[in-house]
Design a protein that fits this description.
Length: 380
């Protein structure tokens, strides 16, 4: 029945599109609808295997969305429902933020202290297989669904990594992902450098970070190192609040979208929470979204030294929009712009001091070349 309904739908579209239109754009649009109907019919008649036209339509819809950017995607009713169920904590994940690049799933960043990070997954890795399934050709949301599953179960990821000829295989156990977003310690010979690793921008990150800095301020800190490496971002309001804490005044970020409600500017309120003390921000290829807002705003205002590697370049806002069929779409509705007016999208934030990462860093490791360089800057 579904197949016949789809055929009737397209016959209606083709008939409708044969009417004359004075507007050139409309003419071209309906010519394309005619063409699509013709291609669908040829597939039905000539393709070597019989295909479900409903599946073809789902692929076409998702193809449209993925042609827009790496973050927009279609979710069928079944996928949309299962994603909602899994988000209630009945299923586990790996702890990675992913996007699409040229039809391949790319790791934006593994979240610190999650199964993916502990296994050795890195920002910039390409996921080519999930268990025994080839990933290329799947949608972003289908890949996400494959990686989720019951807590305690294992999954095998096959990874392609830059500068390595052979693929890497990782066996990772799924867990409930609960991120403690702030981790800290006091560094330096004189124990007067506040080191704060911000793992994500979740709903409590601002309170955790600000309360921590206020305690450090009572210990007469010389300055602060804010570590945003492998921080995939999070909530916009958290990025604004945390950035505001380190700025005396000025614009933090602006968002621009087609709707007036999505076009906004955010400014810092008067008052620098650390009274102008030096700040160094560490970033890498896994620093994305809200991390880039923070680093970019402090760089534009010359409030901090940005050290490390170029950030990821995810400067857009996505919204989950339900559809009438019970499915949904993840759609980009606005983009971020730094105080300088530059877009973060696909460009990212470039560091003032480029220090490439030598080893996978750990908070207590003495082999963290980027962190050690930042400490030397304070002590020089």
């Amino acid at each position: 029945m579904k197949k016949y309904l789809i055929n009737i739908f397209f016959i209606g579209l083709i008939f409708f599109s044969t009417k004359s239109y004075s507007n050139t754009a409309s003419d071209k649009l309906y010519e394309k609808i005619d063409l699509f109907g013709e291609v669908l019919e040829k597939i039905k008649q000539e393709y070597v295997d019989e295909v479900d036209q409903a599946d073809v339509m789902d692929s076409a819809i998702n193809g449209v969305l993925q042609s827009l950017d790496p973050y927009s995607a279609y979710m069928s009713p079944e996928l949309f429902k299962s994603m909602q169920t899994e988000s209630r904590g009945e299923f586990g994940g790996l702890g990675i933020e992913i996007g699409m690049e040229a039809g391949v799933v790319k790791v934006i960043a593994p979240i610190a202290d999650t199964p993916a990070a502990k296994a050795g997954i890195k920002a910039g890795d390409y996921i080519v297989r999930i268990n025994n399934e080839q990933v290329q050709g799947k949608t972003l949301m289908e890949a996400v669904k494959l990686m989720r599953g019951p807590v305690g179960t294992s999954i095998e990821l096959t990874i392609r990594r830059k500068n390595l000829k052979k693929p890497l295989t990782f066996n990772i156990q799924r867990q409930i992902i609960e991120v403690q977003s702030v981790e800290s310690k006091v560094l330096g010979d004189k124990k007067n450098i506040g080191y704060i690793k911000l793992k994500s921008f979740n709903e409590n990150s601002d309170k955790q970070l600000i309360n921590l800095v206020k305690k450090y301020e009572k210990q007469n800190m010389k300055g602060y190192i804010i570590d945003l490496r492998n921080n995939p971002g999070g909530l916009l309001n958290q990025a604004v609040t945390i950035t505001d804490f380190f700025l005396e005044e000025g614009e933090i970020v602006s968002t621009k979208g087609r709707r007036a409600s999505e076009t906004r500017k955010f400014f810092a309120r008067t008052g620098d929470g650390v009274k102008g003390k030096p700040v160094i921000v560490l970033i890498n290829n896994g620093s994305a979204s809200a991390s880039e807002i923070f680093a970019g705003a402090l760089k534009d205002h010359k409030r901090a030294i940005i050290l490390g590697e170029n950030s990821y370049g995810k400067g857009s806002v996505q919204s989950i929009i339900p559809l009438k069929n019970g499915g949904g779409i993840r759609l980009t509705i606005s983009k971020y712009y730094l105080p300088s007016g530059k877009s973060i999208s696909e460009v990212g934030v470039s560091p003032d001091i480029v220090i490439e990462e030598e080893k996978q860093f750990e908070l207590d490791s003495d082999k963290d070349n980027q962190l050690n360089y930042a400490i030397k800057l304070f002590q020089s």
